[in-house]
Amino acid sequence: MFVTSAFAEEAAPAVEGGPTGTEGDTHSSTGVPAEAHGVFPPFDPATFPSQLLWLAITFGLFYLFLKRVVMPRVGGIIDVRNDRITQDLDHAARLKGEADAAVAAYEQELAEAKTRANTIGQQANDAAKAEAETARKKIEAALDQKLGEAEARIASIKANAMKEVGTIAEDTASAIVEALVGGKASKAEIAAAVKSVAR
Amino acid sequence: MAADKVDPIHQFHIVKLIPINIGGYDLSFTNSALFMVATVAVASAFLYLTTSSRSLIPTRLQSVSEMAYEFVGNMLRDAAGTQGMKFFPFVFSLFMFVLVANLLGLFPYFFTVTSHIIVTFGLAALVIGTVVVYGFMKHGLGFLKLFVPHGVPVYLLPLVVLIEVISFVSRPVSLSVRLFANMLAGHITLKVFSGFVVSLSALGAVGVAGSILPLAMAVALTALELLVAFLQAYVFAVLTCMYLNDALHPGH
């Protein structure tokens, strides 16, 4: 909207400041370039209307083309790229979060596994210890029993032996008495005597 | 013809290609008009074709178009704020038009549209016209606050207002003369040095040897003119942005 008014502003001097038609006519009819007038070409007012007109046409079209076609397109490209970059950054941040969570979960699991392993180890240790203990006790008990049996046997053997020692002593004593005294001592007397000696 | 070649002013002559005369005004299609059309065609074609693939990852040429777009966009946003972005198409077309016109003018035998004061004045008048029309449309008489800076003692006010008015009025003149004079002077200098090369070479072996220096100068000047071509388009666009900022925020 402001452009049209600005254009009007620009076009106005073109209409007012234009040279007389005759000057333009001499130009075209003679075909002699402006130097014939001795005017420095950029300051030659005879060329002003045409230059302003064509500037208005070309620049106006250029403006419209850029505004309607080029700038939405370039702006769109840049916006799309920025969106994509933001999106990718978000995605990367999300992935990083996931990775962090995974690491945390892994470490927690690891810690749990460690404690579990420790308890299992401890239990196994305790069980092994207990087993060893019972085995030891069993063996000790068996050994004690055998020891007891052995002692009992020794005791009975000893008792038997002692018993036989009495009879042997009686026999020996009666034989000795027979040989020395020549009489026969009663069995009971000898037994009592042996007993009293053995005591 | 040899004299024509050495004449540094010859390049600025307007030649009628299709004479048109309406209502006593000479509105012929001239070489100047031809190069305006060429400028618009080249700029439009470049911007249109390089962005036609709309690649997410730009090709080199597409990124040139995008850079120009963002360059002007940032320039305008810095100078006139977000409100100024409604003038983005205007400033962008001005920048592209002046830039491409300047660059096209660097080709030998090409006409430089911006070396004519009336063209640059037309563009400058368009800028100032936009500023004035939009300023009054948006702020009404408040736009006149532009001429009354804050914090000036009352007894100095008439003087200051006078200076501000003069400075405002001289804006279109300075804007147009700056671009016009730069392009004109650059092209004359270029032509003079190139003319030396031609005339010296005509003098025989010594002349050919002597023409090396002006040839080197012409090459260096061409590089300088390339810089000036861009710089003047930039300056034109920056000043346009600043003037538009006055239209948007007249209260300094």
Automatic annotation (TrEMBL), chain A:
GO terms for molecular function: hydrolase activity; proton-transporting ATP synthase activity, rotational mechanism; proton-transporting ATPase activity, rotational mechanism. Belongs to the ATPase B chain family. Residues 13-36 are annotated as: Disordered. Keywords: ATP synthesis, Cell membrane, CF(0), Coiled coil, Hydrogen ion transport, Hydrolase, Ion transport, Membrane, Transmembrane, Transmembrane helix, Transport. The keyword Cell inner membrane does not apply. F-type ATPases have 2 components, F(1) - the catalytic core - and F(0) - the membrane proton channel. F(1) has five subunits: alpha(3), beta(3), gamma(1), delta(1), epsilon(1). F(0) has three main subunits: a(1), b(2) and c(10-14). The alpha and beta chains form an alternating ring which encloses part of the gamma chain. F(1) is attached to F(0) by a central stalk formed by the gamma and epsilon chains, while a peripheral stalk is formed by the delta and b chains. HAMAP family: ATP_synth_b_bprime. InterPro entries: ATP_synth_b/b'su_bac/chlpt, ATP_synthase_B_chain. One of its GO terms (cellular component) is plasma membrane. This is ATP synthase subunit b. NCBIfam families: PRK09174.1.
UniProtKB/TrEMBL annotation, chain B:
One of its GO terms (cellular component) is plasma membrane. InterPro entries: ATP_synth_F0_asu, ATP_synth_F0_asu_AS, ATP_synth_F0_asu_bact/mt, F0_ATP_A_sf. The chain crosses the membrane at residues 33-51, 87-111, 117-136, 148-170, 190-216, 223-245. It is found in: Cell membrane; Membrane. It holds the Pfam family ATP-synt_A. PROSITE patterns: ATPASE_A. Keywords: ATP synthesis, Cell membrane, CF(0), Hydrogen ion transport, Ion transport, Membrane, Transmembrane, Transmembrane helix, Transport. The keyword Transmembrane helix applies. GO terms for molecular function: proton-transporting ATP synthase activity, rotational mechanism. It is a multi-pass membrane protein. The keyword Zinc-finger does not apply. HAMAP family: ATP_synth_a_bact. PANTHER family: ATP SYNTHASE SUBUNIT A. Belongs to the ATPase A chain family. Key component of the proton channel; it plays a direct role in the translocation of protons across the membrane. This is ATP synthase subunit a. The lineage of its organism: Bacteria, Pseudomonadati, Pseudomonadota, Alphaproteobacteria, Hyphomicrobiales.
